[in-house]
């Protein structure tokens, strides 16, 4: 039986068990007010204005995180990457400004630090946790001695500051072995700071190194070759199987795990760190989690593998594709349609193909546009051009 037909069977069984609007606080509860949760809520309301929807989100701000790599290279003002959450929250949605603490799917319940909410359907989209604390010495080093990161709104300014003030020496850019949001962002940081240094006239006095915790600089083979060639062309050493585990800021030393029992140290003058990342504890320790702590969902329907009225999208989901904003937007479209189908007792109408888009900005005027689906299969938008070659078109699409 197809996942689509299993969905309708599960939907009818669930409805018979009493998942009705008369017994729930909300038709839909969404955990997470990022692009996935906000996008899904908007799409649900476009198709059914009568839905009673709540979004559980404790933050007052909504961030455009893909813009932070540009801001770190002085190509975008930081203020343009943040907005008030109240400005992006759909008007007909109830904003529950509380922290999710756990899920009780057998009772159709979300538990927060302020109470409980019951639902007919649940969408899990809280994003991913930045584990700066998993690298020894990193948290206390950020913003000092040349250590910076584009992965936090509070640290992006240090990237530009140190890139402009460090005239010579060794520049190291890291990428962890763990899954991360936007797999191309570590490379973007390296390319953009290289470009900035060239424009400042400092590059000849600097030694650039890109250190990946995994076995390659980029996970999709179709784009990896051109990116490796560009690293070589720009004089950026491509070093793999080097996972950052410690920063000794005062000494300006980075320590990398290079094998089960082996480490190596590198001196630096500038260190851009992409922190390890993983699921939030409230999800990882809940009944919704898979063995890795992510929300366990079907790769096509986005429906939970055990609880039929639960769906999951974005960085917090188990969907085996790159964790990018473009991927999350595509998933939100599939999930919102299938959630409506589920509540109506219909077969699912949409299936997610793993699409992810990753514009890799390589200079102040050009970008490579990586678009792919499950198993790294290319899914490019423009057939008349090679998207692996840097283009001004993709740069303006990303920035503007």
Commentary on this structure:
The protein is of the alpha/beta class. 28% of the residues lie in helices and 25% in strands. The protein has eleven helices and 21 strands. It has helices at residues 3-16, 35-47, 68-72, 85-88, 138-141, 156-165, 185-200, 221-233, 281-284, 325-344, 392-399, and strands at residues 26-31, 53-56, 61-63, 82-84, 94-96, 100-104, 109-112, 115-124, 129-130, 147-148, 169-175, 206-212, 236-239, 243-248, 253-259, 262-267, 270-272, 277-278, 310-312, 356-361, 367-372. The strands form six sheets. Strands 1, 2, 5, 6, 7, 8 and 19 form a seven-stranded mixed sheet that branches. Helix 7 links the parallel strand 11 (169-175) and strand 12. Helix 1 (3-16) packs across helix 10 and helix 2 packs parallel to helix 10. The protein is globular and about 65 Å long. The mean pLDDT is 95.
SSE map:
Layout: H1 3-16, E1 26-31, H2 35-47, E2 53-56, E3 61-63, H3 68-72, E4 82-84, H4 85-88, E5 94-96, E6 100-104, E7 109-112, E8 115-124, E9 129-130, H5 138-141, E10 147-148, H6 156-165, E11 169-175, H7 185-200, E12 206-212, H8 221-233, E13 236-239, E14 243-248, E15 253-259, E16 262-267, E17 270-272, E18 277-278, H9 281-284, E19 310-312, H10 325-344, E20 356-361, E21 367-372, H11 392-399
Parallel strand pairs: 1-2, 1-8, 2-5, 8-19, 10-17, 11-12, 11-17, 12-13
Antiparallel strand pairs: 3-4, 6-7, 7-8, 9-18, 14-15, 15-16, 20-21
């Amino acid at each position: 039986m197809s996942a689509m037909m299993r969905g309708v069977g599960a939907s009818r069984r669930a409805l018979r068990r009493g998942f009705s609007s008369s017994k729930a606080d909300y038709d839909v509860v969404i955990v997470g007010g990022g692009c996935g949760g906000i996008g899904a809520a908007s799409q649900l309301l476009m198709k059914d204005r009568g839905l009673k929807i709540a979004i559980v989100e404790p933050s007052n701000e909504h961030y455009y995180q893909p813009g932070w790599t540009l801001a770190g290279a002085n190509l975008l003002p930081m203020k343009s990457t943040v907005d008030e959450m109240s400005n992006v929250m759909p008007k007909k949605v109830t904003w529950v400004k509380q922290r999710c603490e756990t899920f009780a799917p057998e009772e159709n319940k979300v538990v927060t630090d302020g109470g409980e909410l019951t639902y007919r359907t649940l969408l899990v989209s809280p994003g991913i946790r930045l584990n700066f604390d998993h690298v020894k010495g990193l948290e206390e080093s950020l913003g000092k001695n040349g250590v910076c990161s584009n992965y936090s709104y509070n640290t992006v300014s240090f990237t530009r500051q140190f890139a402009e003030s460090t005239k010579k020496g060794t520049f190291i850019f890291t990428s962890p072995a763990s899954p991360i949001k936007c797999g191309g962002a570590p490379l973007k940081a390296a390319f953009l700071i290289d470009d900035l240094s060239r424009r400042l006239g400092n590059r000849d006095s600097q030694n650039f190194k890109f250190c990946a915790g995994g076995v390659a600089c980029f996970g999709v083979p179709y784009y990896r070759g051109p990116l490796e060639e560009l690293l070589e062309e720009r004089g950026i050493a491509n070093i793999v199987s080097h996972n950052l585990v410690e920063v000794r800021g005062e000494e300006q030393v980075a320590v990398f795990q290079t094998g089960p029992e082996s480490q190596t140290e590198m001196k630096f003058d500038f260190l851009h760190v992409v922190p390890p990342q993983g699921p939030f504890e409230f999800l990882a320790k809940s009944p919704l989690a898979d063995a890795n702590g992510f929300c366990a969902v079907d790769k096509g329907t986005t429906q939970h593998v055990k609880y039929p009225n639960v769906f999951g999208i974005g960085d917090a989901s188990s969907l085996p594709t790159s964790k990018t904003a473009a991927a999350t937007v595509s998933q939100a479209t599939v999930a919102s349609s299938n959630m409506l189908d589920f509540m109506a007792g219909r077969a699912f109408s949409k299936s997610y193909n793993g699409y992810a888009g990753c514009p890799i900005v390589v200079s102040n005027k050009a970008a490579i546009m990586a678009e792919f689906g499950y198993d790294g299969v290319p899914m490019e938008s423009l057939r008349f051009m090679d998207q692996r070659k840097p283009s001004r078109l993709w740069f303006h699409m990303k920035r503007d």
